[in-house]
Design brief:
The chain is α/β, with parallel strands linked by helices. It has 4 helices and 8 strands. A hairpin with a 5-residue loop joins strand 6 and strand 7. The chain is elongated. The termini are far apart.
Length: 159
Amino acid sequence: MLKKKDSWTTKEVQKLIEEEFGVNYSSWQVRRILKSFGMKYAKPYQKDYRKPENAEKTLKNLSEAKICDDIIGFDEMAVEANANTARLWSFSKPVRRVATYVKAKVVGFYTINGESLIEFSESNRAEDFVTFLRKIRDLNPEKRIVIVLDNFRRIMPRR
């Protein structure tokens, strides 16, 4: 039954035992039982559910590629939002699948072969973004710059 889920809190297992078997164990006893099953008790590794399985390999391949000597970078507007303090029981390394960002007034340019930049701004207006793009150019003056904008929404003019 415990293998149906990636990871469990001690209280979740206590509740499962009580509901399924009508037995009420202390948290100390539940921990002892789980340890005897070979389960590990650790802080979970946070994994964004939207991240592709081969993301590291793709980035490594991209960083090793010689693409016209262009500066290749990614927009970065993520801020860690989830505390990783609770320990979980798991038969393997505990994983907690979460969305690992919140909306914030921060803009960044992470490059694999040039100068990166991050800024915390007062606002997120179009003019601020244009200023940010100029700063990227100032840091990387010699080559053409390719910016990958994920989750970029096209801004339509108001009528």
